[in-house]
Amino acid sequence: MKDYPLLIGGKELTTNNRLNVLDPYDNGIVGKTYLASTKELEKAIEAAESARKPLWSLPTHVRSTALLQISNELQRRSAELAALLAAECGKPLKYAQGEIDRAVQTFRIASEEAKRLPAEVMQLDTTPAGENREGIVKHFPVGLVAGIAPFNFPMNLVAHKIAPAIAAGCPIILKPASSTPLSALELARIVDKTELPKGAVTVLPMDRETGNQLVTDERFKLLTFTGSPEVGWKMKEQAGKKRVVLELGGNAGVIITAGTDLDKALPRLLVGAFAYSGQVCIHAQRFFVHRSLFSDFCEKMKTGAEALKWGSPLDAATDISAMIDAANTHRMDEWLKEATDAGAKVISGGFEKDGIYAPTILTHVKKELRVCSEEAFGPIITVEPFDDFEDAIDMLNDSKFGLQAGVYTDSITEMNLAFEKIECGGVIINDVPTFRVDQMPYGGIKDSGFGREGLKYAILDMMEPRILVKPK
Fold this sequence. Notes:
Helix content is 39%, strand content 22%. The protein has helices at residues 38-57, 60-76, 78-89, 93-113, 156-168, 182-192, 208-216, 229-238, 262-274, 294-306, 326-341, 370-373, 389-397, 412-421, 455-461; strands spanning 2-3, 6-8, 11-13, 18-22, 29-34, 119-123, 133-141, 145-148, 172-175, 201-203, 222-226, 243-247, 253-256, 286-290, 345-348, 352-353, 356-357, 360-363, 380-386, 401-402, 404-408, 426-429, 445-446, 449-450, 463-471. The protein has a 7-stranded mixed β-sheet, sandwiched between helices. By secondary structure, the protein is of the alpha/beta class. It has 2 domains: 2-248 and 448-471, Aldehyde Dehydrogenase, Chain A, domain 1 (3-Layer(aba) Sandwich); 253-437, Aldehyde Dehydrogenase, Chain A, domain 2. The chain has 15 helices and 25 strands.
């Protein structure tokens, strides 16, 4: 069993509060690390504050090169890191490898964006008072950043907080999920081998009470959080004067129009519905299918779902493995019973076997039930028919969430109408809402969040403009 000490200011340390990280599939110990107390957090804050000016003072090419070095090391160790990630979060190896590949790209894109930090010369003589003057606008780092990341993408969602902070010149202290901290701790060691100042990046597993200081401490100037709406909006209330970026998930909808080639679309529909047992913020949860295709769609999805391979996440052929813990598996049963008691029909699945919850397809689900109105974050989808495209948009919009949506259509008119009318942060045409590449502006409206991730957009959130007005 490998030991993962904490790393603060370039120095390894341990605490009395040991944390064993368990494989959700077989409950074996993947590795051990340590929970930081307020004492260790204070050391990390002091190290970050000491690194703040040196980090911003680094030439752009040094920060860019450091980001590229991190990317290259992730790529070199991708197979090893994918196996670690699969073990600690129960993510099938094919998806774990995909996550590491995305983290490689995240740091590579950040390396390029670091060279394009915004600056402009502003004409001021467009009004009489500005005659004989001009402005120079530069962007400066906001200061110390607090990051809090979830369990479901323990490498790439951490990368989406650390990489833009480095590019912007902001030190960051990041709290990974206590169930999946090992990938992030390996990333911290990779960062430590670059020329970045010691203390510029710290990854600290902590309990929730200690981690709350990331939210309330005024020395942090920005909080970036990915997680549940209940926790995220409460954090925003407690954050005081600091900036806040929230990515809070959703119950993403997919519209399948009459012209859709279901056989062509099916592989992506199954990925959107059931990849990583639906434990994805942009999991395709609610399907609205044109009535002419409804029966065929249900039959094809049932056949496809029942053909998915169950098993160990470390088996390269596995499609479906254990959810993150037994509590979430039990929650699937509760939500399913609530739906079936209210008249929902189970097309496929609806049971747990050997610790794995079956991919589950429901129809005739009342919109107020939790499997429809809340974020399932599990392998459950709902399927309902529609007759008119605009009615389907209204059905999709009838949600407190608005992260991403998918629309399958061969009509330019429908594509444009979907973009104009669907209330969410991103509309994906002829693919599932689960599609994301890491340079995209990514985030939602309504209960799905506040602000945007994606490298350029996250960097801008971590900087503030300052203008110099001078004579021409």
